Amino acid sequence: MQMLAPETWEMAESVPPLPSSLERFHSIVQNAVEGIFQSTPEGRYLLVNPALAKMYGYTSTAELLQCVRDISVHVYVDPAARREYQRLMAERSEVHGLEYEVRRKDGSVIWVSEHARAVRNAQGDVLYYEGFIQDITRRKHAEAALHEAKNAAEAANAAKSQFLAVVSHELRTPMNGVIGMASLLENTPLSAEQRDYLRTICDCGDALLRVIDDILDMAKAEAGRIELEEIEFPLVPCVHGVLAVLRPIAERKGLLLVSEIGAEVPVVVRGDAVRLRQILMNLLGNAVKFTSAGHVRFHVSATACTDREARLHFAIHDTGVGIAEAALPRLFQPFSQADSSTTRRFGGTGLGLAITKRFVELMRGRITVESEPGGGSVFRFDVIVGTSGRGLPTGWP
User: Fold this and answer.
1) For residues 79 and 81, what is the distance between their CA atoms, to the nearest angstrom?
2) Structural domains in the chain plus CATH codes
3) Whole-angstrom Cα distance, residue 285 to residue 253?
4) Among 38, 53, 121, 256, which one is most buried in terms of CB atoms within 10 A?
5) CB 307 within 8 A of CB 270
6) Is the model's pTM score more than 0.85?
7) pLDDT digits (tens, 9 = 90+) for 59-79
């Protein structure tokens, strides 16, 4: 153990004495930036600090103590907030972050957050309440402004969706008439040139109908009005139906369209066949559209979730143009494509993948993509479907 030298003793004796506990408490209360108080359970302030007096619009603590005879009447804007305060104190002996409006001396209103506790004697009787109060007016105003902006944005979005739905319906009716009349015209005597023109009209009409359907689906999705069907359907014919539509297009481009269906895939599933077909048509259609040479490979497998459900895993590989890494995060956003040249070269609204993602998520699945420019793309998604326990028959393609 080391001994202090005599000169050290003299220096220690010359240090001024520390302030008493009462003086320290008084200094903390007087200089605090938050309001500090003690009050009776009946609602009369016993002690307040300058910060609370200033917060409530009084020139001094003495003025506040003199003017505020009843906290319930002179401070609280809403009596229900004071009743909630009293209830919490009676049940828990404390309040944490209770937010309420306060009426200041000049009649203006501010928002505060209070943390307080009940101080009791040895017999458990409440002597007084004590705590601190923060002015949260700016925060509450910011929250109100944010809430108002959110409501305005939601209203604008709902109006946009409603407008798109109405316009799409109005466009669909005459378009169906145009396509119907064109189909009837095909059965009349036409020259080769006229038949070629007519085929162009039909193709353009079908393309426009697909755009209208995409807009309708997107409007329904944004409004939360898409409901999935729950019906039993044969899965493999559903898949092959999509491939049958796209195979002639692939052959005209010289592409190899290959499908692989795992032996574990159930024959009959329960779900929304129309939406699943739309997902496959969007993804496989894009793969064929954006691939100029090589192949498009489609694979589906299944894993059991429960006795009554299975998770179907789909993968679409292509050797197409690929997608830049910077474009991947926005790929599933509405009206988005890899770049503006894609729209000019291949056409489309950029809604297909956004709608596909919504449908996949409604089927309790997720969709991902891996791609690089010039290296093709791989889209993978999974969905959950109901099963009947029957497997794929032997020899099914």
Assistant:
1) 5
2) 23-135 (3.30.450.20), 141-223 (1.10.287.130), 231-387 (3.30.565.10)
3) 13
4) 53
5) no
6) no
7) 999 999 999 999 999 999 999
